[in-house]
Amino acid sequence: MSASVAAAAPKSRLDVVGLLSRWGTIASLVLLVVFFSLKEDDAFANSRNFINILNQVSILAILAAGLTVCLTMGLFDLSIGSIATLGGYLALRWGAEDKFGLGPYGVLLIVLLAAVVIGVANGVIVSYLGVSAFIATLATASILDGIALGYSDTATVQVGIPFQILDLGQAKFGPIPSPVVIMAVVMLVLWFFLERTQMGRHMYAIGGNPTAARLAGVRIKYYAILALSISAVCAVLGGTVADAIIGAGRPYGVGSVYLLDAFAAAFIGAATLRPGRFHILGTLVGVLLLGVINNGLSIMGAETFWQYIVKGAILIVAVFLSGTVSLRRQGV
Amino acid sequence: MDDTVGDLDAAAAVPVLDVRDLVKDYPGQRALDGAAFEVRQGEIHGLLGENGAGKSTLIKCVGGVVRPTSGEIRVVGQEVTLRSAKDAHALGISIIHQQSNLVGSLSIADNLAVGDSSSLLVHPRAERRRVREMLDEVGLDLDPRVLVASLRPHESAMVAVAKALHSHAKLVILDEPTTALSAEETDILFGQIRSLASRGTAFVYVSHRLGEVFRLVDRVTVLRSGRRIGTWDAPAENQPAILDAIVGDKVPQRAEQSNGPDRGRPLIEVRNLAVEPCADVAFVAHEREVVGLAGLTGSGAEEVASVLSGAVRPASGAVLVRGEEVRLGLPRRAIRAGIATIPKDRHREALLPGFSIRENISLASSGRFLTDPVSRTVRPDRERRAVTEAMQSLRVKATGPQQSVSTLSGGNQQKVVIARWLLEDFAGYVFIDPCAGVDIGAKAEIYNIIRARARAGAAVVFTSSEPEEYQRVCDRVLVFHQGRMVAELVGPEIEENAIVRSSLEPPAQHTLNQKEAVS
């Protein structure tokens, strides 16, 4: 009796906070698009600029999607920025040197394998040494930064980069730039992974209650390694695309730009449709929200500092809404 | 200590603590129903009763942690209203719990200084001297710089007593202080308690270990169903009457006739199991049989069940399912070997809060709905159908599989937890206190689910914090007492009385053997 009453109660009246927490981020995205379209109709509201926005957010989206996989399990991966930097640098440098004699695609494969190695290392430190992911990835980030600087002698690679690698950032499929295609593929694959496979289910379960998941036979350590590997692979992919767009392999400052935005996007995503849960679709909304703000404000000619202030404010509101609702649902 | 002899005599006439007609209602349940309790100065008073008799609620009321619904509490003749633990403390009432209120990572000196705000600055030498005096008072010869975490349990209990006395406690309530103590340590603790009592401090001693209680206390009060059944002087001589009072006269009730003689082949075999506090436990659970593991908290019954579930790795021993040894300490291995466990604390150990009923039920068996073993894609239609079926067969009251599990009542949540293990047939089921915090109607349904599992051929191991449940579901009950199996009850022998008696005071020369048994 009491259960059915409790379940029916939120539906019987207009639940403003509940609605806002589900649809608030999507509504703000729509409102922002409408606002910028009215204000700057020529410059903002045209298909070229929309594709431009997608292109601008693609690297962030690739990193944030990988991060989302970690966050479903409650793992904070702070190393994605550094992995992106090192991965991108290695791809371009080894590509330029044709390091292994396997051609550019061979290099890409080896760099992605290196990403898996880094991710597994992160996972082993977290699972088997019992270091919290927050600290462990902070530490590996520092180590990877050091490796990138030492290996490169702080020199940027600009010469001899094969076109196959540059194409990752510069090619176009019709009107669609390749980074947008890569973003779409990554998001689709990870969406399917989290929503439709047993592994995704298990990761969510671990994030919901690790003790219960363990007692239900879920291998928590294995999934920590898997999640951190996925985010590392995404980071390397994102870093490579970032360097390919510019055509230069930079040993520093590539990924760090995206680190905080990736977290912001994922947390905005956790306030979308399914409050309190990280999911790919939500992360996409978060990424687009950040992209539209950046793009719209710069078209309006607002100074850059406004982008940061608006982003921060939106993040606080989003996290607040997802938090209050998920806490209330748990009856806290 | 500064009181004159005359004051002491005058005060002795008035009880330190006098509780009258105390009522405490919790939603849906009356924990105290007009309880009375009285403690004289300088006495050691045992407070006894089964789980749920109202002991801890009474203590919480006296300690200011819980506000009683009605009734009065008098401290040295004065009626008082206790709004917080601080109020009780100011009146000289101090409660020392099993896991004492000390901070393990701090030294003895730091612990004894905590909450003592006589001066802002700490003078190390003066402080150490003061702490030494406090320890001397309770007969402890310890270095004040030692960390509390490194103390033996009886030592930290006495440090807690020293702290209580320092804040001028007139009444010290010891709540199960000896669960972690050896026999010698218990003796030392008792000696110190007696010597303090002879100097005027009153003690209330709460324990399940009746043997100890009878050795230590001057008087005994028994609670049952939130009421005082009686108070006895000279408890050792009145032991049988006190035991009767604790157990009460209960009519055995049986939900369903057991199918004991019908049991099949051995299914789960436990050999030479050593897991704190048990040294060597062995038993067999057969097909179509519900085996109860009974005993008080810390007796070993629940610990053995936790080993079967894979949650706890034992020091040594083996568990075999259908003759195959199971690797212990890994829930995944236990599950794969065919043992499903409904853990004790559903919120901490089973439920995924805020997740849908579907996600909660299919968690352990999503492998059944995969399209292929490589991508491990879950087929939502098949999953949904199986979950809906399980919900219907267990009669989970909900709007549908997508409803959040956190909005369900306790009984329905527990059914969801059970349903998680019914999508597949397991050889063995371990139910650890499955009816805790569940309403009466759902309890009966859960008993039936358990019986149905056994009927379907499974071996079921069952533990409960309420002794009366065993007779309703079990074919056989093994009673644990301080890590040993002390009784085996079969069929009609399974009654609450028998279980409670052997778990409190096991048959045979238990009291004689207590020392050897513990050491």
UniProtKB/TrEMBL annotation, chain A:
Membrane topology: Multi-pass membrane protein
UniProt source species: Nocardioides soli
Recorded superkingdom: Bacteria
Keywords: Cell inner membrane, Cell membrane, Membrane, Transmembrane, Transmembrane helix, Transport
Keyword Membrane in annotation: yes
Any one GO molecular function term: transmembrane transporter activity
UniProt protein name: Ribose transport system permease protein
TM spans (from-to): 20-38, 59-90, 102-121, 128-151, 176-194, 222-246, 252-273, 280-299, 305-327
GO cellular component: plasma membrane
Predominant place of localization: membrane
InterPro entries referenced in this protein's UniProt entry, alphabetically: ABC_transp_permease
Pfam families cross-referenced by the UniProt entry: BPD_transp_2 (PF02653)
Magnesium as UniProt keyword: no
Subcellular location: Cell membrane
Upper lineage: Bacteria, Bacillati, Actinomycetota, Actinomycetes, Propionibacteriales
From TrEMBL, chain B:
ABC transporter domain boundaries: 17-250, 262-507
GO function terms (MF aspect): ATP binding; ATP hydrolysis activity
Record bears the keyword Transport: yes
Gene3D superfamilies: P-loop containing nucleotide triphosphate hydrolases
Keyword annotations of the record: ATP-binding, Nucleotide-binding, Repeat, Sugar transport, Transport
CDD domains: ABC_Carb_Monos_I (cd03216), ABC_Carb_Monos_II (cd03215)
Alphabetical list of PANTHER family matching this protein: CARBOHYDRATE TRANSPORT ATP-BINDING PROTEIN MG119-RELATED, GALACTOFURANOSE TRANSPORTER ATP-BINDING PROTEIN YTFR
Protein name per UniProt: ABC-type sugar transport system ATPase subunit
